[in-house]
Specification:
single chain; alpha+beta; Barnase, Chain D; three-stranded parallel sheet
């Protein structure tokens, strides 16, 4: 049957992380904006449902009400068939036979708040091909596309999670040559601590959490921040704090200091 041996690109999963079905492709995956109040739909093509989902799709409204799917989301797979990220999917609103196989169906689902942005399609396609294997691959992106790279760093299911923290007292080099915005700082510090594609926070609260341990490095440690003048200028956003006014750059230094990180700023 056509499409039966093709590797799926997506999995439908429930709240217990069980697979409800595998899908060969999707239309409407990338959206122009996440700010629109109108529901965003995605067409999932060539889906092969498990029996529980098949029963749900063919059942009456009463059956569906009594036997909810517990649909949790859509798991995107990379080119090797490994999980990349999980995306929110609220409900299935339509089902029809698929041209990709007699046992397969095409589904229409509602989603939106974390769906990939059209302006960052290239970012997602790069990550789908392979996880970053060298630093600063994100540096050529700006704005929303760079933010999407940070989203993928934060949600990458392929990233190791059971690796112990490296011991205190180490020295890490932070390449500041591309820290022209907040996303750039978190991408750079993530790679300084955990290598290409590494995560070490995505906002100030998350940075604070990472410095408490379990994210690759134990404090105290030394951070040598190269080309720090770039961030000093680009992260000059004023921030009002109880102890006075600071910039975003200054607050980062305060957080490092509070956790015993010795930061050497080099121009």
């Amino acid at each position: 049957m056509p499409g039966e041996s093709v590797r799926p690109k997506f999995l439908l999963i429930d709240g217990d992380d069980l697979v409800l079905g595998e899908c060969l492709d999707a239309e409407g995956l990338f959206v122009e904006s996440r700010d629109d109040d109108e529901p965003v739909t995605i067409e999932l093509l060539g889906c092969l449902p498990v029996q529980r989902m098949r029963d749900y799709l063919s059942g009456s409204k009463r059956y569906r009400r009594r036997n909810p799917l517990g649909l949790e989301g859509l798991r995107m797979l990379d080119a090797a068939g490994e999980p990349l990220v999980d995306l929110w999917l609220s409900q299935i609103i339509d089902c029809r036979p698929s041209a990709l196989g007699s046992e397969r169906v095409d589904l229409v689902g509602e989603w939106g708040y974390d769906s990939p942005l059209a302006c960052a399609r290239d970012v997602w396609e790069r990550w789908l091909t392979a996880r970053p294997d060298r630093p600063n691959l994100w540096a050529g992106y700006e704005g929303a596309a760079r933010e999407e790279w940070l989203t993928l760093v934060r949600r990458d299911r392929r990233a190791p999670t059971d690796r112990p923290d490296r011991s205190p007292g180490r020295t890490y080099d932070l390449d500041g040559s591309h820290i022209t915005d907040k996303a750039g700082f978190y991408l750079a510090i993530g790679e300084a601590i955990n290598g290409p594609g590494g995560y070490f926070g995505c906002n100030l609260d998350a940075l604070n959490d990472c410095l408490r341990g379990r994210f690759g490095a134990q404090t105290p440690f030394t951070l040598i921040w190269h080309d720090s003048h770039i961030a000093r200028e680009s992260l000059a956003t004023p921030m009002e704090r109880p102890d006075g006014h600071s910039t975003y750059f200054d607050v980062i230094q305060d957080i490092f200091r509070e956790h015993g990180v010795d930061v050497t700023l080099r121009r």
